[in-house]
Design goal:
18% strand; Aminopeptidase; six-stranded mixed sheet; 42% helix; Alpha-Beta Plaits; alpha/beta
C-alpha cells in the first residue's frame, strides 16, 4: 500500500464510526428535496467540528451549503459533492428483504443519497487531514447539494459562481458495480403548463365555456404526434397536476400538466423544449384558452472528464472493491428473492452481459460486485437518466465514480434500494468510495498536467464559460416543486 493510500485508509478507518452514524441518521431523517433540514444541519455540524467554515443557505436554497477548509496560501481548490435528499413513498425498514415501511407512504432513501453524502464527507475530511499532516497549501470544499431528486441545486450553485475557482471536483453514487463510468447522462428541462378557460354548465350551455382540460389534452395529443420526429435518445414525460376538478358537468376553467423533456446534449434539450412550448400554444389557440408556462428545472448533460477518470480509475483499483462476507451475500440473495420473474430475467441478462454467461450461477450465488470494472471511454454511451452533476461538469472539471452498495442488478428508486441503503452493504460501499475519492483528489492535486488537461476538456464542452440552462429569473422552487 502506497504512503498516500495508507494515510487515507487510516483516517477513514479512524472516522468510520462517525461517518456511518451520519449515513444512518440521514437515512432515518429521509427528507424530501428542499426540505432536508435535519440532514443538512447534521452535515454542517460535523463539518464545523472538523474545522471547516460553513456557509449555509447558498444560492437561495436554505438546505444547500458549503464547508470550506483552507491551509496556507495557494494550492489546489478541491471539491466533493454530497447529496442527502430522499424519495417519496419509499419508506422501508433497513436491511429487511420483505416490504415493510417504517411509515406507510413516507419517504425513503431509495437512491442511497444518505450514503452518498456521508461518503463524500469522509473524503473531504480525509483530504483535509492529508493537507494538514503534510503541511501543504490547498482548499477543500464540501458542497452540500440539496434536492437532486427534485429540481436540483448544482445548476443554481454553478450559476451563483460557486465552482468558478475550483480546480476539480469528485463525487460518487451508490451502485451495483464498482467502476469509473465513462457513460454520460442526458440533459433535462421541466416546466408546468397551465391553461385557463371559462366555466359553464356542460349540459345547458357548453358553448359558453372554454375548456382548459381540452387544451391540456390536445397538448398531449400534439406532443404524442411529435414523438416520431425527435432525435434518438430524446424523451418526453408528462403528468397531470390539475385536471380541472371532479365535476364532469362543469366545463373546466383550469388545468395544469407537468412536462419534462430530455436530450443527449443541453443545446438539444433547449430546442426540443421550444417545440413543446409551440404545441402548448397551438392547443390554447385551438380551444380559445390562455396558456402560460413556468420553467421549474433543468440540468445539463453529464460528461465524464477523461483526465480525472484515468486518475480515479487507478485509485479505485488501488483501494479495491468492498470486502464482502457470507452474511453480505446472504442478504443480497434475500433481496434477489423479492423480485418478480420479469425483473430477475432482466437481472440475469445484465449479469451475462457484464460478467459472461459462464459466471451466471457464480454471481447469483454471490450477488455483490467484488471487482473493479475497466474504464472504457471508447464504449461510452449516453444514458437517458439525468443528474444536476452535469452542470458541475460544464462549470469545472468533475467526475462521478460508482461503488457497489446493493445486490447485483438491484433496481433503483425502490423499497429494496431503501432497505439496502440503510444496511451493512451501504456501509462497506461508502467507505470504499470515500477512500477512492480522497486518494483521487490527492493524486490529482499532485499532477498539474492532468489538471490542465481536465480544464481544457471543460473549455471544449462549455465554449469558454458555463451557461446555466435556466435563465436568471428562474429561482430554486423551494417549497413548490
Amino acid at each position: 500500500m502506497k504512503p498516500d493510500l495508507q494515510f487515507i485508509d487510516k483516517v477513514v478507518n479512524e472516522k468510520k464510526d462517525l461517518i456511518l452514524e451520519v449515513s444512518d441518521k440521514i437515512w432515518g431523517f429521509a427528507e424530501l428535496p428542499y426540505a432536508e433540514v435535519e440532514s443538512a444541519k447534521l452535515l454542517c455540524d460535523v463539518l464545523r467540528a472538523e474545522g471547516f467554515t460553513v456557509e449555509e443557505g447558498v444560492a437561495e436554497m436554505p438546505t444547500a451549503f458549503t464547508g470550506t477548509f483552507k491551509t496556507g496560501e495557494g494550492g489546489c481548490v478541491m471539491g466533493f459533492l454530497g447529496e442527502y435528499d430522499a424519495l417519496d413513498i419509499l419508506s422501508q425498514e433497513a436491511g429487511k428483504a420483505t416490504k415493510c415501511p417504517v411509515k406507510e407512504g413516507a419517504p425513503g432513501h431509495g437512491c442511497g443519497h444518505n450514503a452518498l453524502g456521508a461518503g463524500a464527507l469522509a473524503a473531504a475530511i480525509a483530504t483535509k487531514e492529508y493537507l494538514v499532516a503534510h503541511n501543504l497549501p490547498g482548499t477543500v470544499i464540501y458542497y452540500g447539494c440539496a434536492a437532486e431528486e427534485g429540481a436540483g441545486s448544482k445548476q443554481f450553485m454553478a450559476r451563483a459562481g460557486l465552482f468558478d475557482n475550483v480546480d476539480f471536483c469528485y463525487t460518487w453514487h451508490p451502485s451495483t458495480q464498482n467502476k469509473v463510468d465513462a457513460n454520460g447522462s442526458s440533459a433535462i428541462m421541466g416546466a408546468n403548463f397551465e391553461f385557463f378557460g371559462l366555466t359553464s354548465h356542460a349540459g345547458a350551455t357548453p358553448f359558453l365555456g372554454r375548456s382548459a382540460l381540452d387544451a391540456a389534452e390536445l397538448m398531449s395529443v400534439g406532443v404524442n404526434y411529435m414523438r416520431e420526429h425527435i432525435i434518438d435518445g430524446a424523451r418526453i414525460h408528462y403528468a397531470y397536476a390539475d385536471a380541472g376538478g371532479v365535476a364532469p358537468n362543469v366545463v373546466q376553467d383550469h388545468a395544469m400538466v407537468k412536462y419534462e423533456v430530455r436530450s443527449p446534449k443541453v443545446a438539444q434539450v433547449k430546442e426540443l423544449f421550444a417545440r413543446v412550448v409551440k404545441v402548448a400554444q397551438g392547443a390554447a389557440l385551438m380551444t380559445e384558452t390562455e396558456m402560460k408556462y413556468e420553467l421549474t428545472m433543468a440540468f445539463s448533460d453529464y460528461i465524464a472528464n477523461d483526465a480525472l477518470a484515468r486518475i480515479a480509475y487507478d485509485c479505485l483499483v488501488e483501494v479495491g472493491a468492498p470486502e464482502w462476507d457470507e452474511e453480505d451475500y446472504a442478504l443480497a440473495r434475500s433481496f434477489h428473492a423479492t423480485y418478480n420473474g420479469l425483473t430477475m430475467n432482466a437481472i440475469k441478462e445484465s449479469i451475462v452481459k457484464t460478467y459472461g454467461a459462464d459466471r451466471l450461477e457464480e454471481i447469483l450465488e454471490k450477488p455483490l460486485d467484488s471487482e473493479i470494472h475497466p474504464y472504457e471511454p471508447e464504449k461510452a454511451v449516453i444514458s437517458c437518466g439525468s443528474t444536476d452533476v452535469g452542470d458541475v461538469t460544464y462549470a469545472c472539471p468533475c467526475l462521478n465514480l460508482n461503488v457497489a452498495t446493493a445486490c447485483v442488478g438491484n433496481v433503483g428508486h425502490t423499497w429494496q434500494m431503501t432497505a439496502q441503503s440503510g444496511s451493512r452493504l451501504a456501509h462497506k460501499g461508502l467507505l470504499v468510495a470515500a477512500k477512492a475519492m480522497a486518494l483521487s483528489a490527492i493524486r490529482t492535486m499532485n499532477d498539474p498536467d492532468a489538471i490542465a488537461r481536465a480544464k481544457e476538456i471543460v473549455l471544449r464542452q462549455n465554449g469558454g464559460k458555463y451557461e446555466c440552462p435556466l435563465p436568471d429569473s428562474v429561482k430554486p422552487p423551494v417549497g413548490k416543486y
